[in-house]
Write a structure and sequence with these properties.
Layout (H helix, E strand, L loop, with lengths): L7 E3 L13 H10 L3 E6 L5 E6 L1 E4 L2 E6 L4 H8 L2 E6 L7 E13 L2 H15 L5 E4 L2 E4 L4 E17 L3 E6 L4
Antiparallel strand pairs: 1-11, 2-3, 2-6, 4-5, 5-10, 6-7, 7-10, 8-9, 9-10, 10-11
GO molecular function: pyridoxamine phosphate oxidase activity
InterPro entries: F420H2_bilvrd_red/Heme_oxyg, Pyridox_Oxase_N, Split_barrel_FMN-bd
Keywords: Oxidoreductase
Length: 172
Amino acid sequence: MAITEPAAVVDARYSEPGATATAWSDALDVLTGAQIFWLSTVRPDGRPHVTPLLAVWLEEALHFTTGGEERKARNLAANPHVTLTTGTNALEHGLDIVLEGDARRVTDDAALTRIAEAYTEKYGSDWTFTARGGELHHAEGGAALAFRVAPRRVFGFRKGAYSQTCWRFPVD
């Protein structure tokens, strides 16, 4: 199910004069190709929590996994609002992406199988999971919860020719 391509708006306050909006296809290239993302969640006491993780872009959303007892899983149980960031640490080139949305747990084994296949395709055989009982199970043991984050708003920070683009998405 493809969503309508979001409208891109350049924020002139944070862009060079004459900057144009970054194409959504450029943002998708970053979202699909990035190996590491940074997930920001909120602890139950309101303090922020940030952690690096692997994620895959599938069916118009980012998907990530975590153990059920990990801090991020406990945070998400209390507050599903998240930000995922990726990009480059270079100053003069590249495109950094900030994706905002709500993390929703995926428990359907058919959807989990598609997520597992996407992980193996992107990250290799060390990241092979089997979907069973609403969780992803690693061949070497251990279960993981999977979360889907459909974007509500995405920011693209182009470097070199500096520009900030914002894409907005419909809310479910």
